[in-house]
Design goal:
There is one protein chain. The protein is an alpha+beta fold. 48% of the residues lie in helices and 9% in strands. The protein is built from 19 helices and twelve strands. A five-stranded mixed β-sheet has the order 1-2-8-5-3. It has a three-stranded antiparallel β-sheet with strand order 4-12-9. A two-stranded antiparallel sheet has the order 6-7. A hairpin with a 5-residue loop joins strand 10 and strand 11 (487-488). Helix 7 (166-181) runs antiparallel to helix 12, helix 8 packs across helix 10 (225-255) and helix 13 (326-339) runs antiparallel to helix 15.
């Protein structure tokens, strides 16, 4: 009996191995990143290395001059590209809209960020209207209020001493997100600000699983110290997110009760009550899509991450570039002052913000050099053909935005140089539509890209009208560490000088 069972197990193992080898036959047609070894693949590039060296090595791996190539995570092949044509085909392909299984590490399976395609498709369709231009324009007063609060806080630090400013930006963008999407005034709920540090740490711990293949197994990961820390942090963060959600549900129920005054008729001074679009759209059961509570919670969590951590970190890069290049800072400042002179009342509206053309070029150049999501991972939902090669169903795909943004055949011989003129109308004409992907591309791009650009512009207007940024850092001093988002290996210190 035992011999029969062993024979069956052996036969099943052989069948599975043969099927696996057949599935990997396509890898013979694509070049692999070297050095590559049996079993461990490209593992020596990452094993035992610091987070900074891991980032450097992964960047080097994705620099390969081929339209498609292979990065091996042990025995797992990842089809990678740094070519705009291939990026467009992958990100726009209807059978490549599934996020890689590694996104499950973030445990947001029912939110826009990492949900499976079947869940994401219905959510995205229902939530697209919440980020239309008309609604975004109504957020400007909230961006303005939060930016003024940021300036007041920085005034106390602008005494010529070096300060760490990125935490201040993260606090400001969190206030913006909570005000515009959840109707929550963070100044009245300061204890909720703790969620930002929790989320950053959770994402960092989740990111560390990517290069540790044994941690890809939930069973193995459960025995790790990281799992215990992540679980504790996640419980605390969900508690805060649940409080935000419950408050919104109660407010929504009250405002839709007959005889009550709707939020849209609230006093103008109550800017955190107008509009409350995103959370109301999630809660409202009349919008054609019924969101389950777990979907609402995961999207609340997602918006906190996507709307505050990313924008706050990006503001750090923008101000670092302003400080490193004082002559460019002066150009941005001059434009802001020409549109918003100090002797007149500051009037922020869509028309005045659109006049900041050089400022927008500067922001985009920062996004080119520092894309917050440096690498995107997808999974083929069916067999697909890319560049004459049939890629089987279930294959992981990687688009290196970091490398696409540095291609000399796209951005010129000085692609590594920081130059906002890269986004002048003359240079932008005829550029490949997928050569600039700070907010991803294709159907599953970032839903909040216009939100981010508008909030960053408003913050810059207030910051540069009040401060001059200085630093001892140079572009060559900037180093990154491997993480889910593009994170600095060390936090730069700034000197702020008051202008007025």
């Amino acid at each position: 009996m035992i011999s029969v069972l062993l024979t069956i197990v052996l036969m099943l193992a052989v069948v599975k191995y043969v099927k696996y080898r057949q599935q990997l036959s396509f890898t013979n047609l694509l070049p692999s990143v070297l050095p590559c070894y049996p079993i461990i693949g490209n593992g020596l590039m990452f094993l035992g290395k610091s987070k900074e060296q891991q980032f450097i090595n992964f960047v080097e791996a994705t620099r390969k001059p081929a339209r498609l190539f292979l990065v091996w995570l042990a025995v797992l092949p990842i089809v990678a590209t740094n070519d705009p044509d291939m990026a467009q085909k992958i990100l726009s392909h209807p059978e490549c809209q599934e996020k890689s299984y590694m996104y499950k590490f973030f445990k947001l399976d029912y939110g826009l960020f990492s949900s499976r395609h079947c869940i994401w498709k219905g959510q995205r369709k229902a939530l697209n209207p919440t980020f239309n231009v008309k609604i975004l324009n109504e957020f400007i007063p909230i961006f303005d209020r939060c930016s003024r609060s940021l300036v007041r806080k920085l005034f106390t630090a602008a005494d010529g001493k070096s300060i760490k400013i990125i935490p201040c930006f993260l606090q400001c963008t969190l206030e913006m997100v909570c005000g515009t999407t959840f109707g929550v005034d963070m100044e009245k709920n300061p204890e909720w600000a703790a969620i930002m540090n929790m989320i950053q740490r959770i994402f960092h711990l989740s990111s560390q699983r990517i290069l540790k293949l044994h941690y890809h197994s939930d069973l193995v990961y459960r025995f790790s110290k990281n799992y215990r820390e992540e679980t504790k942090l996640r419980e605390e963060a969900y508690s805060i997110a649940n409080a935000i959600l419950q408050g919104a549900i109660e407010r929504n129920a009250k405002e839709t009760t007959p005889g009550t005054v709707p939020a849209n008729n609230a006093p103008e001074s109550d800017c955190f009550r107008k509009p409350q679009i995103f959370i109301d759209q999630l809660i409202d059961q009349k919008n054609g899509k019924k969101f389950e509570r777990i979907e609402i919670l995961h999207n609340v969590y997602t918006m906190i991450v996507a709307g505050s951590d990313t924008s706050g970190t990006q503001m750090g890069y923008i101000c670092l570039m302003l400080a490193i290049y004082p002559e460019l800072q002066q150009k941005v400042y001059n434009e802001i002052m020409s549109v918003f002179p100090t002797e007149t009342e500051l009037t922020l509206n869509p028309e005045t913000l659109r006049q900041l053309q050089y400022t927008e070029m500067f922001i985009k150049e920062c996004l080119r050099h520092f894309p917050i999501g440096p690498h995107l991972f997808r999974e083929s939902m069916q067999d697909i053909e890319l560049d004459g090669t049939t890629i089987p169903k279930g294959t992981m795909l990687c688009v290196s935005i970091y490398q696409i943004h540095r291609r000399k055949d796209v951005w010129g011989p000085n692609a590594d140089k920081f130059d906002p003129e890269n986004f002048s109308p003359e240079r932008s004409e005829g550029r490949h539509p997928f050569a600039f992907l700070p907010f991803s591309g294709g159907p599953r791009n970032c839903i909040g890209s216009r939100y981010a650009m508008m909030s960053i512009k408003v913050m810059l207007v207030h910051l540069l009208r009040n401060f001059r940024f200085k630093t001892n850092w140079t572009l060559e001093d900037i180093r990154f560490e491997f993480d889910s988002l593009l994170k600095l290996a060390g936090e730069p210190e700034f000197c702020l000088e008051r202008r007025i």
